[in-house]
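Residues pack. Consider this:
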Amino acid sequence: MDVQRVTSYTGQSYAEVFEAFWNGMNSNYMFWDIETVNWNNMYKTYKPRFEALDIDKTNPNNGQKAVQYLVDMTKDLADSHLNLTFNGQGNFLIGNYPIQSTTFSPANLRHQLNGASQPIPRNVFDNVIPKNYLTKAEFGTDANKSFEINLGIIPRGGKNILYLEFSQFKLGEEYWAANSTATPVKPVLDDFFRYTKDPSIDGLIIDLRGNPGGSVPDMDFFLGNLITKPVQVAYTRTKTGDNRLDYTPWIKGYVHPQPGSVDFTDKPVAVLVDGNSVSMAEMTSMAAKAIFPKGKLVGEQTWGGTGQIPPSDTRYLGGQFTAAGFVQVYMAGVELRDKNMICYENKGLTPDIPVKFDTTAIKSNIDVQLDKAIGHIVAPN
């Protein structure tokens, strides 16, 4: 009998909501192997609290209390993709801070409370850098400007540095293949790949600052065009059953060369990252380090969300589920580590060349992080 992921746990009472949620997390959560939260203690602590809600069924605050209990149970979990969406309920406390929302993202609130930096304004990427750093600047976007891409050449120190920035990973399947955006993205990407084959290009800067991630197949589409043989960049594993530590063996993850690709691995590469580089931005940064011997991460510590969100099919037993119609749980269903088996979940990647974004310098059209990346390409170490 094939094992299938349970994606919906039923229940009518608050006690059944708790059982559905606790069991759903127990079976589908990917990071129990690194987790510091004692999930068994959560059962002992919160089961009687949910049962008490069923005793006084007329209390109008029961739904609010149930939301708060689920928030308290999950606020310290490591999965940085974890998000709870409450059906018709909202508002909760984190510490003494009231949050008015029907969704709860533990990692997002942790970053806010820890004083995480604000995302770099799009104006920096779309205006400051193209006007003050790039020659042959190109730009692409969609009708709503939900996706933007910038390309150009930075001439510095007698070298020609290829620069590429895009706001999220929707490159291959959506914007290159469809080519249906208002200011088409496909010509920009075509020119990027053309430049990588140009011997006058001396290095590459990939700007992933503020990039929240997106489509996993972009790994092959993007980096696969810069290699001519497969390169192992990571290990992954999924769940094999309902028990907390039922995992598959670790499987090697590769970036695969694409048709017409070029070997760019002998040239220096800098990947710009910051505290708002998440998910596929982090996986791509990790892969770039594995692929390019002269590859460096420049900027600030990344977010720390390297788990993958799998499609909803029977190959994956971990990940998203609904608990008794009360809460929708969104979380990773694939655990990922780098090729050295280092886990970055809830930690982030540490840059090789650390430098903070300077909000004062940018007013004078100086991007200190980009300047550091340029310095690495001009004189790689």
